[in-house]
Amino acid sequence: MSERQNRNRTLRVFAMVLATVIMCCMWATPAAAQAQPYYPPAQLDQMVSRVALYPDPLLAQVLAAATFPNDIPDAAAWADEHHNLNGGQLAAAIEGDQLPWDPSVQALLPFPNVLQMMASDMRWTTDVGDAFLGQQQEVMYAVQRMRQRARDYGYLRSGPQIVVAGGPYITIMPARADYIVVPTYDPVVVYARPRPGFFIGAAIGFRFGVGVGVAFRPWGWGYNRIAWDRRVVFINNAPWQRTWVNRYEYHHPYTVRYYPEHRELRHHENHGHEVAYRAHERNEVRREEHHEEHAREERREEHHEEHARAESHDHDHDYRAHETHGPEVHKPETHGNGNGNNGNHGNENHGHDSHGDKGHNDKGHGDKDDHGDRHR
User: Fold this and answer.
1) d(Cα 261, Cα 283) in Å, to the nearest integer?
2) Same-domain pairing of 346 and 220
3) What predicted TM-score, i.e. pTM, was given to this entire model?
4) Is 164 found in the same domain as 306?
């Protein structure tokens, strides 16, 4: 074999090796990008510090919504545009606009200030969401550590807006279950020893509250809580089980409809999988509604059949009653005064409406007895 042929063969082998290496690098890059991040305890403490003093129902919803960071900016803009709505009007607007964002994000639309805080620091929001997906229990521990500091320094305490309970774990609940007040505070202040002369009572403010009554039940409000002893977040009365591993397939515990097909492809790196999965969810809902409608139709048909049988039974009863009363119709002839016309008249009258007259007479007799009882 000539030297030129050897050189060409070497070049071909080198090109094949180089192509293989490039392909391996291309495959490895997405895998590295999808690697689960890890946050040490100190970083988690700093991360949760700005929301650790939120009431438990609101904190649970914020943590869930942070796992969909790409939805937050648009949701914050929508909430700001509709900040003049509240209660049933706001719930109807959310439902009517067929919003494409995950229900955990939609649940925060009554809280435009919270969404604006999350949208203004997307790095923080993304980190919180990733930490909650991959290190949920560690996030819960971090929240408790920060609450413990705020309580030890005298900042965190019960008041007209919140109820703070101690014990093994510190819980923060709204004073009214259907009214969530959002605390405002400086993390640099409330987690450190107060300086001399500082008025502790002014460190945490409660200037913004939202009513989340029956109209917002479809978004989980009223059923959100945190089981601190198990470090489990409950959304809409169901454990939030979305993790880093199943984040593209998890079935959310919501009853509200949402429309991810309205979302642009650039809004999520795995949008196609989410749309397909959520379309499957909607198909399941439609099938369930179809089955329910079919069951209602069957119940209506059964009701009509029962009604028809009841009418048939009543008709047979009337017919038998008429036959039973038939012989009594001729009694006036036997006990009459011998006047043929009078006997025929009694016969015609009783035969015309013997059952109705009997009922009328019985009723009249009953009225008479009641009248007599009242007089007695």
Assistant:
1) 14
2) no
3) 0.63
4) no
